[in-house]
């Protein structure tokens, strides 16, 4: 019988790539917020917020880095307020908790592809939308990349328990897609079509990446037929690999830390644990991994 996966406040360790991303986000966010007025009012030159945010003005001046740098800062017009600090904290908490889980299970390359590749995809869509709608606003914030991480993570852990408002336990798939769906509805109903397009493109990228790159079926059985058609097209034109259903990720199983494949042999499991310890330290092992490692060692001593 399939059991729900528990979810703690955060991972037992944070990979280096997650720490670096958080550190750069904090550095650029607060540097731009503290120096924007100084650059524009005293020096009379574009502020760091304007140089790093995504805008038609910047791209037409060949500031190509804006397709990625907008993820590291907050909107130019924002001052330092309690609401902004809360938003930054919440974004970085999700980056730490969800991003670390993805790095641990799928590897650093997949995290980079999701966070920065997805951010680049949304940035290009955003720029094209600005050209079409004549929107000259400066776009900034990590929300699109956070959405992408959340969506892809829900494919890996659809039955994990998350706390809504820190009080109500909900399945990850319902909470993640429910909150994003409500946000999309509010943006569309309030006529914020530009924001709706950004959120929608984040949802599409996260979904397509999980289905095509990982060949993982979505958390919702009604979509499995469509998922399988996409995977079939990918296999036909780009190669072949096995489909792994999200529902196969059961709590009682031990997985390869890079591929997500279930490990059955003791020797293979020990090799995977030793590799994980060499990369992230002994504290990176979960209690279940330590328990199984202890049982294997005990069995070998008795043999």
UniProtKB/TrEMBL annotation:
UniProt domain Peptidase S54 rhomboid: residue ranges: 85-213
InterPro entries named in the record: Peptidase_S54_rhomboid_dom, Rhomboid-like_sf
Transmembrane segments: 20-39, 51-73, 79-99, 111-133, 145-167, 174-190, 196-217
UniProt keywords, alphabetically: Membrane, Transmembrane, Transmembrane helix
Subcellular location: Membrane
Main location: membrane
Membrane topology: Multi-pass membrane protein
GO MF annotation, one: serine-type endopeptidase activity
Residues spanning the signal sequence: none
Annotated GO CC locations: membrane
Protein name, UniProt field: Rhomboid family protein
């Amino acid at each position: 019988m399939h059991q729900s996966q528990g979810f703690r406040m955060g991972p037992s360790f944070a990979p280096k790539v997650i720490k670096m991303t958080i550190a750069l986000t904090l550095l650029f966010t607060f540097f731009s917020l503290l120096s924007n007025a100084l650059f524009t009012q005293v020096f009379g030159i574009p502020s760091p917020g304007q140089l790093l945010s995504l805008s038609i003005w910047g791209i037409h001046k060949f500031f190509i880095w804006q397709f990625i740098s907008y993820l590291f800062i907050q909107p130019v017009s924002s001052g330092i307020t309690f609401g902004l600090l809360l938003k930054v904290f919440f974004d970085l908490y999700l980056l730490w908790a969800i991003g670390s889980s993805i790095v641990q299970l799928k590897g650093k390359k997949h995290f980079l592809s999701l966070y920065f590749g997805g951010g680049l995809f949304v940035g290009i869509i955003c720029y094209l939308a600005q050209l079409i709608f004549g929107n000259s606003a400066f776009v900034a914030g990590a929300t699109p990349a956070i959405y992408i991480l959340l969506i892809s993570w829900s494919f890996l852990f659809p039955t994990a328990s998350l706390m809504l408002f820190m009080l109500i336990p909900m399945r990850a798939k319902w909470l993640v897609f429910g909150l994003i769906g409500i946000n999309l509805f509010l943006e569309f109903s309030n006529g914020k079509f530009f924001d709706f397009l950004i959120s929608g493109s984040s949802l599409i990228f996260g979904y397509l990446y999980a289905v095509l790159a990982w060949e993982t079926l979505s958390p919702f059985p009604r979509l499995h037929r469509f998922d399988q058609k996409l995977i079939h097209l990918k296999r036909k034109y780009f190669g072949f690999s096995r489909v792994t259903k999200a529902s196969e990720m059961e709590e009682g199983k031990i997985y390869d830390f890079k591929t997500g494949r279930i490990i059955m042999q003791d020797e293979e499991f020990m090799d995977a644990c030793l590799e994980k310890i060499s990369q992230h330290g002994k504290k990176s092992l979960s209690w279940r991994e330590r328990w199984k490692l202890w049982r294997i060692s005990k069995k070998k001593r008795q043999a």
